[in-house]
Each structure stands twice: as C-alpha cells, then as structure tokens.
Amino acid sequence: MSYLENIRTFVRVYELGSMSAAGRDLRISPAVTSSRISSLEEHLNVRLFQRTTRSLTATEQGRAFYTGAVAVLEAVDAAEGHVAGITDNPKGSLYVAAPLGVGRRLIAPRVPEFAGEYPLIDIRLRLTDRNVDLTTEGLDIAFFLGEPADSNLRIKQIANCERVLVAAPDYIAKRGNPKDGAALIAEDHQCLNLRYPGAPEFQWRLQTADGPQKFRVGGRYECDDGDVLTDWALGGEGIILKPVFEVADHLNAGRLVPVAEQTPPVPVQMACLYTHRRRQDPKTRLFMDFMTSRIGTAVKAAQDSVQLPR
Question: In 3D, which of 44, 9, 161, 53 has the Cα closest to residue 99?
Fold first, then answer.
C-alpha cells in the first residue's frame, strides 16, 4: 500500500507542479510528500523531478512514468469501484469543482446530507470561477454554468438558469435605470465584471428584438469572485449580471432591483462534466445523481419566487 500511496503522491505533484500544493491536496505534510517522492525515485532508480529552490519540473523519466502511473491508479480505482458496487458500500475521496456561487449556495449546504448517507465517502470540494481541467487537476466532477470548452467530456444537464441584470436602489437613484443593453454603454454605466486569469474579453449576451446580441460593457471594478461583485452591487457601486438563484433573496427583499429589462440576459445552462471512466465509479455516480436532482429543484424554486418579466 505504501508504494501505491507513493504513486498517488507522485501523480498529484506532477499535476499540481508543486510539492507543497500536492501535500495540501492530499492532506499530508511537505516532509511526507518529499519523502514519498524520494522513496519512489529510489525504488525506480531514476530522478522523477528536477528541483530548485523556486521550481519543480518533471524529468523525461518522470513524464514517461506519469502515463503509466495514471493507468495504474485508474485500474485500482476501477477495481475498488467494482467491489463497492457489489457491496453497496462506496468509499474513498471524491474531488469536485464548482463555480463559487453554485458551490456556496447549492452544493456545499447539501454535502453534509450526502455524507450522512454515505459516511465512507470523503468530499474534496474546490470552488473557483475560473475554468478547470478535470484531467490535469485530478477532478472527478466539475459543475459549471455555460458551455464547456472540452467536448470530449460527458455532460449531465441540471437546469436552465434564468439570469438578470440588477443594481441597488442607491445606484439607480444616482445613475438612473438603463432601459436596455445599448443604454448600458451609451450612458456609461458601471458594469461589474467577473474576470479571472485567462478569461476571454468580457461581453454580456442579452436578448434583443433581433435575437441574442453581445454587448461589450465596461466599468471600474472587476473581480474573479462573483460574491464580491454582488457585495459591490449591494453597496451601490454598479450593475451585475447574475443567475436568478444567486440573487433571489436580494430581489425579493428589494436590496437589488432589475435594470435594462427590455434586453434581459440570455439564460445559461447549469450542468456537470465528468469522464466516461469516472461515471463508472459508484461514488461519482451517487454524488452526481444526489446533487443534480436537488440542485435542479432549488434553482426552479428560486426562479419561481421572483417576479420577473418572462
């Protein structure tokens, strides 16, 4: 088992590019991480990584070993999953990624319920609004809003999410309520944008009389955390584009109000990504089925609670 753990550690170091990051991910100390890599190198009689004080790079032998190491772990996971399926007692760690708003509001509150039903499954939830890569980041499932970049992955649809442009009453009192997307630009409104490293040029896709159109909005503020944008909007700093489920409570309480209602945002799909291999793992299938049914119900309830032009 120690050799297998050494291989698992090597794979995470390779994928994350850092001993410390891999140690945090595996919940082991940096010393243990380094010791496992050294033990594996000694066993193989090769150097798997070139190490300096500032960087860590896989050697040619390390790159070659990674391919085989992943295959070994996949075979072990598949065998364990088969046994778990027979015994109806799934166990192990499940690595899940989700956008911040989806994760905080829809997934994280339901994790304890899932864990109560399946106490041998450990949930490793990673929340980020950037795009994630299931393969290189060692993820089992990735929830997302929009269209996935990788068409080779499997998709499970969850819900059609209505979206809305909103601002605080204080902002509208100061700047007025733009009637449509064109007014957002012509009247130089402060649009609060979600940006992260590598994000494409920002545009809002709105429904017009001539069909969906993209509007290149601008503003003084941007952030890679959608909840920060909501806080800014609540403070009267500008306009945000949000899924209704994220701001339903604020809309119903009057803290945020719809703007540019003549050109509402185009709805966005919520779904989860997984590989065919991951779907065969009972714990992946159980978590995905558990969450998607409950999330779909929650999104619909939030949308039904808000009175918006349809």
Answer: 161
Query: What single-letter amino acid sits at 273?
Result: L
DSSP character at residue 7: H
Residue 309 pLDDT class (50, 70, 90 cuts): low
Average pLDDT over residues 291-296: 91
How far is the C-alpha of 247 from the C-alpha of 240, rounded, in Å?
10
DSSP 3-state of 160: strand
Pairing of strands 193-194, 92-98: unpaired
Query: Global pTM?
Result: 0.69
> Nearest-CA neighbor of 13 among 49, 52, 64?
49
Q: Which tokens in the block code for residue 3?
A: 């050799």
Tokens 């929009």, residue?
146
| Cβ atoms 101, 243 nearer than 8 A | yes
Give the C-alpha separation, 222 to 213, whole Å.
22
For helices 19-26 and 30-44, the axis angle rounded to 10 degrees is: 110
* Neighbouring C-alpha atoms within 13 Å toward the C-beta of 141: 28
Contact 236, 284 (CB under 8 A): no
Using the predicted structure, report yes or no on whether residue 266 has a pLDDT greater than 80. Answer: yes
pLDDT digit string, tens, across residues 106-142: 999 999 999 999 998 999 999 988 888 887 777 889 9
Taking alpha carbons only, the member of 194, 272, 185, 197 closest to residue 227 is: 194
CA distance 159 to 162: 9
**For the chain, what is the mean pLDDT?**
86
Helices (H), the chain: 2-16, 19-26, 30-44, 60-87, 100-102, 111-117, 169-175, 181-186, 226-234, 244-253, 276-279, 282-304
